[in-house]
TrEMBL record:
Residues 21-51 are annotated as: Disordered. It comes from Elaeis guineensis var. tenera (Oil palm). Residues 23-33 have a biased composition (Basic residues). InterPro entries: Flavin_trans-like, Flavoprotein. Belongs to the HFCD (homooligomeric flavin containing Cys decarboxylase) superfamily. One of its GO terms (cellular component) is phosphopantothenoylcysteine decarboxylase complex. Pathway: Cofactor biosynthesis; coenzyme A biosynthesis; CoA from (R)-pantothenate: step 3/5. Pfam families: Flavoprotein. The keyword rRNA-binding does not apply. It comes from the Eukaryota. This is phosphopantothenoylcysteine decarboxylase.
């Protein structure tokens, strides 16, 4: 009795509200309380960001196609001069044709070394004869001017000692040198010389290289090897792969061909 009286004396009195809460709780225990609803797990933010990125990529690709802003192929004008290295001109044309639109120019003396029939079918080869046969009357286009307008880049490979001297002196007595004389030097022009070692080390060659350098013409230097004449030394044209890579790596894409 003493313990019972002691215990109940410290219990708080039950009012109607407390009794109702206790009764409701007991009923829930008998039925088994339902767990609170689990909120939906938010999507993985990384997955969301990937989806957004893909949407942007797809959207940008569509814009490129729709807006016509896709970079166009560069127009490359390749030229060969009277050097035995012109036997590699066909290989050079094939390399560039895989990446660019290519047209070719050959001097009369270069035709002793290159086989026109071996060039890729989509490469049009122009010679001095075409310069005169394409013009009929006043108002007709002039070939060397039209090629100058068409090209984004010009590459003379091989460049002989004779043509180097002509360019440095401003001479224009054939189709190739007329194009160079009319060239827009805001557009790249590369030359890959090829000549005998004694000609390469001649003082005139040094002077001529300095002159064309002032014009902004880019030199792709010759290499040292056993030359076609049997001499060993510097003067052989750089390999076609080196010429191609030099031009390709320096190229800045544009959405417009030519400069007019």
């Amino acid at each position: 009795m003493l313990l019972s009286s002691f215990s109940h004396s410290f219990l708080p009195p039950l009012n109607a509200a407390s009794l109702e809460r206790r009764t409701r709780w007991r009923r829930q225990r008998k039925r088994g309380r339902q767990p609170p609803p689990v909120p939906e797990t938010p999507s993985d933010p990384r997955a969301a960001s990937q989806e957004e990125l893909m949407a942007k990529v797809e959207g940008s690709s569509e814009n490129i196609v729709q807006d016509g802003a896709q970079p166009v192929k560069p127009r490359i004008l390749l030229a060969a001069t009277g050097s035995v290295a012109s036997i590699k001109f066909e290989s050079l044309c094939r390399s560039f044709s895989e990446w660019a639109e290519v047209r070719a120019v050959a001097t009369k003396s270069s035709l002793y070394f290159l086989d026109k029939a071996s060039l890729p079918r989509d490469v049009i080869l122009y010679t001095d004869d075409d310069e005169w046969s394409s013009w009929k009357k006043i108002g007709d286009g002039v070939l060397h001017i039209e090629l100058r307008k068409w090209a984004d880049i010009m590459v003379i490979a091989p460049l002989s000692a004779n043509t180097l001297a002509k360019i440095a002196g401003g001479l224009c007595d054939n189709l190739l040198t007329c194009i160079v004389r009319a060239w827009d030097y805001s557009k790249p022009l590369y030359v890959a010389p090829a000549m005998n070692t004694f000609m390469w080390h001649n003082p005139f060659t040094k002077r001529h290289l300095e002159v064309i350098s002032e014009l902004g013409i880019v030199l792709i230097p010759p290499i040292t090897k056993r030359l076609a004449c049997g001499d060993y030394g510097n003067g052989a044209m750089a390999e076609p792969s080196m010429i191609y890579n030099t031009v390709r790596l320096s190229y800045k894409p544009s959405t417009v061909n030519g400069s007019g």
